[in-house]
Amino acid sequence: MKKILAIVLVLALALSLAACGGNGTTSSSTPAASGSNAQEPAGEFAGQTLKVAAIETAYGVEMWEQVCAKFEEKTGATVELTTDKNLEDVIDPQMKAGNFYDVVHLATGREKALPETMLKENALADLSDILTMNVYGEDVTVGEKIIPGFTGNTTTNPYGDERVFMMPMFYSPCGLFYNKANFTEGGGELTLPTTWDEFFALADQTDIPLFTYPTAGYLDAFIYAMIPEVGGQEFFNKALQYDAEVWSSEEVGKMFEVLGKLAENTEKSTPSNGNNDNFQKNQQLVLDNGALFMPNGNWVIGEMADAPRADGFEWGFMALPAMEEGGDRYSYTFFEQCWVPAGSTNQDLAKAFISYLYSDEAAEIFATVGGAVQPIAGMTDKLSDDNKVYYSVYDNGAKAAIGTFATTKPVEGMNFKQIFCFTMDSVVNGNKTVEQWWTDMQDACATMAANM
Question: Given this model, what pLDDT does residue 42 score?
């Protein structure tokens, strides 16, 4: 009798555990049970596994989990999702050991420069054919959905030809954030500057330092917008190719003159806090009226959502001031990218997944769950009024600067971004002059040009 009772209890416990098994959360599908009554997964990729790695940012992880789950439902594939705030530290050692992910969402411009390194080593797959593929589940091609200009630039086409190696994902106009309450548009006394002369004239009208930056690394988008302001679009394109005449030109000299004045008007604690641990202290300066303007992207709003702020604070955003009255004003568009390691063994499924990322279904999840906006035609119409303030900057007369420095062969000992951006810390601290910064940039560009 005891043996029969024990068997009954074991069976009951097993049934109870089976009933509770669906309550957990996982980033991958559970394989169908085996046996004559098992239902095989539907879809053309049934039985295949896709390894996806995505950087965890202020947009959160849930949007990726939902998109992957929807893709599993449509295709029958299993998606193994890996996310981490320091994604490079997770995936780089694995790929060096030969364990490649199939799709990686990790942008260029980060300090560890993993995608840049892989581009230099020709370690990414050619994704050009994705543009002519139909979006998975739709009757329109990926290329038809993407806003013109977000492909064919030096970021997506890093080798200067027609080949696409990086697909554009979430984008954010980058410009100057400020507290509206300090300016007439928010009831304040100051007038928003439209030129750099007007910008620096504010120093005589307020005791608040004019400028701060989260880390000097954020100055890449800032300087990218300044280059076409001084020389135009073709000038900008040549600058990204390390053109010696451009970088020694009078126009670039004017740009460095402005950067020098900015250094003089930067809140002095900025360089000491301009690191991955303390960058939010610099962002907090704008919320506390400790600095008037700060270059950033719209993600700063989410990052500082719970931070204290001055009475009446309201986020404001504008393109960079023009170099002269009536001159062009630019806002650099930062966009994240996804890519496929050349070592991936499941590239057909990887390309199908990337095409699905541009579907109406996936785009709505990204926008509503994470607040992440893709360069898809018509997306700004679906945004909240707050987000339209930032994404409509180009509707208000600003021009878009898009692109990054051209890819070169690996150059031993060269940290180009350190020279391009982080020298600003030394100029603010007084350890270097802006003239030395300009000279260093010319030398660095000559070195990079020789290794293209």
Answer: 59
395 alpha-carbon distance from chain centroid? 21
CB-CB contact of 234 with 434 (8 Å): no
- R_g of the chain computed on alpha carbons: 25
pLDDT at residue 451 is higher than 80: yes
Q: Phi, psi at residue 83, to the nearest 5°? A: -130, 150
Contact 239, 246 (CB under 8 A): yes
User: What is the reported pLDDT for 397?
Assistant: 81
| Torsion angle (degrees, nearest 10) of CA 360, 175, 178, 183 | -110
What DSSP element (H or E) covers 67?
Answer: helix 62-75
Q: How confident is the model over 19-70, as pLDDT tens digits?
A: 333 333 333 333 333 333 333 445 789 999 999 999 999 889 999 999 999 9
Contact 406, 158 (CB under 8 A): yes
- Of 137, 180, 146, 326, nearest to 156 by C-alpha is 146
| DSSP string for residues in 330-394 | EEEEEEEEEE-BTT-S-HHHHHHHHHHTTSHHHHHHIIIII----SBTTGGGGS-HHHHHHHTGG
CA 317 to chain CA mean position, Å = 18
